Amino acid sequence: MLKLQQRVQGVITAIDAHGRGILPYGKERIFVPAALPDEQVEVTIVKMIKEGYIGAITRLTHPSQDRVEPPCPHAHSCGGCQLMHMAPAAQLRWKQQRIIAAAKKEKLSLRIHDVVPSPAAACRNKVIASFGKDRNGMITAGLYEESSHRIVAIDRCLLHPASCDAIIQTIRTLMKELRIEPFDVRKRQGFLRHVQLRWGVRSGEILVTLVASESRFPARKRFVQALLQAHPAIRSIVLNVNRRDTSIVLGSEEHILYGSGWICDELLGRQFHISSSSFYQINHDQCERLYQKAYDLLELKKSDRLLDAYCGIGTIGLCAASQVKEVIGVELNAQAIADARINAKRNKITNARFICEDASRFLLAAANQHQRYDAVLLDPPREGSTPMFLDACARLQPARIAYISCNPLTQLRDLKILAQYGYVCDELFLYDMFPMSTHTESVALLKKGGQRTTKVRRGSVARTQKDRGAHEKRYRHGK
Question: Where, by residue number, does S-adenosyl-L-methionine bind (predicted)?
Fold first, then answer.
């Protein structure tokens, strides 16, 4: 058993799912942030965890040829960029190899394509900052350290638009001037918890959402006027109230302080109405590449009926509407469906319908009524889909399914389940939606044509309301 502050030496053998180097030491495993495979290191044990220990690099004896100097001074303290110390090309290779290994583990015979790099490093159109106080009582703004509630004060993030970081710093200054207290998680007191910014990449419009612990905002008028004067690109300011003890950023109560409560942006030539809670891919340009790949794989025809499952605000279905006869979008979140309908009208699309319903039950009912869908588009959260949904989808028997995922590991699990229903997948296409992180986006095409090894039972999608509600809740809160 290792002791805290004990120093050990060894060679890093691999990187785990969190981007930490793995250092075997006897029967123990030490997880070392900012370490790369084949590096010889000396580490100090700083923490015991369930899986082993956390070690901090004390001395790097033999660095990897893939090691680079991180361009951000906060790379080793902020929890947002786990791989910034790795050369960009090496990051892409590691992501691909990790998914190849996972496919072998699932015994899936797939061609795993090279990861398509992100067009730009400063790619994020959604920014979330947290607020607190430092040891001197000064208000700080920044991002959480990984696996903690300690705020790393950051004035400039290389992944964020500069205009968004400037707004955060203005808010921090206004808090001091107007005596607005940041929310203290431990004491459960204070006002401002977070600020979420949505930026329209094509429109340049910005939506500011102030996440507070209560609806009473005494300095509201002066705050809003000063913020708008400093940043004319702001189109709307919303006060979101989150009174819960939760890691989920947004609450369900909102008050519009300025503007309409939403901004507009363009994706693949379509205009989209985006509110605080809208799910909208965080990397705009890479999203366009990803969606276009899904449409190309489906080989959509003018005679096709397309089902957009868990459609959110309608981005995927509406961008494909001109290529098909009809689009049906299904989503349990009523606000998202209302936004999808607005987006259809905004784009003058008349062949798209959006239905507020549990997607699994909608698919089951459609199958029982012998309705026909030529293609299904699916983009679930990180947890992947559920046996309930996959079973219902198989009963509907679409000829083609395009499965988009922000977690290829759960996607591979679901592909294996769909294979039991006779859906064949030969290739997985990877996209670097989140540069510098361990995450990868992927898309796969499944075609009906294999031999079914699982019987589709008429009542097999019946689950408890609790199970179904928990799964749908994850969709409502995005990925």
Answer: 281, 310, 331, 379
Retrieve residue 199's tokens: 């930026």
> CA-to-CA distance for 321 and 303, rounded, in angstroms?
11
- pLDDT band, residue 464 (cuts 50/70/90): very low
The Cα–Cα gap between 194 and 181 comes to 12
Could you give the count of Cα atoms lying within 13 Å of 455 in the half-sphere of its Cβ?
3
Binding residues for S-adenosyl-L-methionine: 281, 310, 331, 379
- Binding annotation: 281, 310, 331, 379
Query: Architecture of 126-267 per CATH?
Result: Beta Barrel (2.40)
Write out pLDDT tens, residues 106-142. Answer: 999 999 999 999 997 767 999 999 999 988 999 999 9
The catalytically annotated residue of 157, 393, 406, 425 is: 406
CA 227/CA 225 separation, integer angstroms: 6
Percent of the chain with pLDDT over 70: 93
Rounded Cα–Cα distance for residues 383 and 151 (Å): 27
pLDDT at 470: 45
Token reading at 465: 């309301």
Q: Where in the chain is the domain with CATH 2.40.50.1070?
A: 126-267
Residue 199, beta-bridge partner list: 206
Q: What is the mean pLDDT of residues 398-425?
A: 95
Average pLDDT, the chain: 90
* CATH 2.40.50.140 residue spans of the chain: 7-67
Between CA 401 and CA 445 the distance in angstroms is 6
CATH superfamily of 283-476: Vaccinia Virus protein VP39 (3.40.50.150)
* Residues forming beta bridges with residue 454, ordered by sequence position: none
Please determine, looking at this structure, whether the domain spanning 7-67 carries the CATH number 2.40.50.140: yes
Q: What is the pTM of this model?
A: 0.90
Q: Specify whether 406 is catalytic.
A: yes
Q: How far apart are CA 314 and CA 296, in angstroms?
A: 18
